[in-house]
Amino acid sequence: MSGSLVVVGTGPGKAELMTPATLAALAKATDLVGYGPYLDRIPKTRPDQRRHRSDNRVELERARHALSLAAAGREVVVVSGGDPGVFAMAAAVFEAVETGDPGWRALDIRVEPGVTAMLAAAAEVGAPLGGDFCAISLSDNLKAWTTIERLLRAAAEADFVIALYNPASKARPHQLAQAFEHLRTIKSSKTPVLFVRAAGTPEAKVVTTTLAAADAAQADMRTLVIVGASTTRRIGRWVYTPRSEGAAS
Ligand code: SAH
After folding, report:
1. Does the beta carbon of 85 sit less than 6 angstroms from any atom of ligand 1?
2. Of the residues 15, 51, 131, 135, which has the fewest C-beta atoms closer than 10 A?
């Protein structure tokens, strides 16, 4: 019997933001594989369901483990936070397929989309992603800091709204401050900057400031930072980016 592997995302935190397709995949699974805190978000509906908890840093190992369980006939669900394709497990699964047992290519593998942090964060403050935007992870676990600096500068030159994932690293606390320095050399000091912590949860907290005043110490690992484009503006407690160039200020 051949098994299956579905990669899902739990959404940003609150249960209502987990999609029905994800809940259906979870209900069918014989095995859940994921980082402990994400597995804890999933209600225990089946006592026979096995949970394989792992550390956050061992994504490729976790992906290989999930694939070998599926190859052994299990119905496996790999769990990420947010959307599984955004800086998360879906790419790790395909990397494991590419470099692993050729038999894994014939497996029934599926990805279910989820609500990623930047969408939940944007919704907390209005519509800052209303125009063209990009997402950059500031984590340098998998790429060089010089690459990240190049991405930041290019995104600023292109006048994208920029969503910054993984803004805070315990190992390198100065990187977000450095990122702001790069952006300040290119973007207006009045550019709106948003720190959205625990978006899409009852504990959500928003700090709205400007690029000139943005303080990197405001961000932790549960924060998403949004840096506006030249057209992004504040109206009262809301921030939005108009859809048309014509609305540029
Ligand atoms: N796959 C996830 C992202 C993983 S990277 C997704 O699609 O959301 C982890 C980073 O996502 C965190 O450091 C933080 O920047 C951001 N993040 C995840 N959940 C968040 C939330 N509820 N509120 C704000 N940021 C969040």
Report:
1. no
2. 15
**Whose alpha carbon is nearest atom 20 of ligand 1?**
117
Distance, CA of 125 to CA of 120 (rounded, Å): 9
CA of residue 249 to ligand 1 center, whole Å: 31
Ligand 1 atom at shortest distance from the alpha carbon of 168:
13
Based on the structure, what is the number of domains in the chain?
2
* The token pair that represents 233 in the structure block: 């503006």
**What sign does the CA torsion over 205, 197, 38, 94 have?**
positive
Map residue 178 onto helix, strand or coil. Answer: helix
Pairing of strands 126-127, 4-9: unpaired
Of residues 179, 244, 246, the one with CA closest to residue 211 = 179
Residue predicted with more confidence, 60 or 41: 60
pLDDT class for 247, splitting at 50, 70, 90? low
Q: Whose CA is nearest to atom 12 of ligand 1?
A: 166
CA-closest candidate to residue 204, choices 120, 127, 128, 136: 120
Residue 249 within any structural domain of the chain? no
Q: What is the largest CA-CA distance in the chain?
A: 62
Task: Give the domain-ending residue among 71, 90, 115.
Answer: 115
Percent of the chain with pLDDT over 90: 87
Single-letter amino acid code for the residue at 142: L
**Residues 95 and 130 placed together within one structural domain of the fold:** no
How do residues 6-54 score in pLDDT, each as one tens digit?
Answer: 999 999 999 999 999 999 999 999 999 999 888 988 888 888 999 999 8
pLDDT band at 105 (very low <50, low <70, confident <90, very high): very high
